[in-house]
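Figure 6 in text form: structure in, sequence out.
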């Protein structure tokens, strides 16, 4: 992982690194959503808090995502 605390958006793969994503980026970024690239590969879009839509969620909500079947 790379420290990118000044970037407007971050795209990260959903999976084993979720806790690290929350730890590194949770204070500055909100979760805009989780999007399916293809079966088995989901990507998270994190947006800097000062730019995120009002309906964006706190980054810790990454753990509550249930992938579609």
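Output sequence:
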């Amino acid at each position: 992982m790379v420290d990118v605390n000044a970037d407007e958006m971050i795209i990260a793969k959903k999976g084993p690194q979720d806790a690290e994503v929350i730890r590194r980026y949770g204070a500055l970024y909100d979760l805009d959503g989780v999007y399916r690239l293809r079966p088995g590969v989901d990507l998270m879009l994190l947006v800097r808090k000062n730019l995120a839509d009002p309906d964006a969620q706190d980054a810790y909500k990454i753990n509550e995502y249930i992938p579609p079947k």
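Caption detail: The first helix runs from residue 18 to 25.
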